[in-house]
TrEMBL record:
InterPro entries: CD36_fam. The keyword Disulfide bond applies. The keyword Repressor does not apply. This is Sensory neuron membrane protein 2. Coiled coil: none annotated. One of its GO terms (cellular component) is cytoplasm. One of its GO terms (molecular function) is scavenger receptor activity.
Length: 174
């Protein structure tokens, strides 16, 4: 007799615990987690989240490799370019957001990226290296000029490229 009563009580208690744990795990816990996430990611003035939004707490590494033309004079007279891969030039990029306006649901900001040359990581290369690069804008504009069927869009792009390309085949960077 005791076995039947004890078994019934144990089964009933087990069912109550299963139902209670299901309610807690599927109803209560998700609500608590959602509230915690909302409080942690909400952008409110003078909070850690806002500080992290305004200035990224770590620098990003930006690596640049350049194809240097070793014989630009020969190329201008029709020679074959001798191209050498130069680099890496390593820059550390920090990101900052300058908040211009903020209301309840919208933040208007301007992003400011700052690149600083890393001399140690870039060694033996430095910002003083003299490099000769292909001036892509110049070459595109000369190609478009020679095009027999020029469109209005090409003409507009050609005017822009002529202004910015400075009419030189190579860009000398120091």
């Amino acid at each position: 007799m005791c076995n039947i009563i004890c078994g019934g009580i144990t089964t009933g208690l087990g069912l109550v615990l299963v139902v209670a744990s299901c309610i807690v795990s599927f109803v209560v816990v998700p609500g608590i987690v959602d509230d915690i996430i909302k409080s942690e990611v909400q952008l409110i003035n003078n909070t850690e989240q806002m500080e992290r939004f305004e200035e990224v707490p770590f620098a990003l590494t930006f690596t640049v490799r350049i194809f240097n033309i070793s014989n630009p004079e020969e190329v201008l007279t029709g020679g074959i370019p001798i191209v050498k891969d130069i680099g890496p030039y390593i820059y550390r990029m920090t990101q900052r957001r300058v908040i211009e306006a903020m209301d309840e649901d919208t933040i208007t900001y301007r992003r400011v990226d700052t690149l600083v040359f890393d001399e140690q990581a870039s060694y033996p290369y430095s910002v003083e290296d003299r490099l000769t690069l292909v001036n892509a804008g110049y070459h595109v504009s000369t190609t478009l000029k020679g095009s027999s069927h020029s469109t209005c869009q090409q003409a507009s792009m050609l005017r822009w490229l002529n202004f910015h390309a400075r009419r030189e085949a190579f860009a000398l960077k120091a």
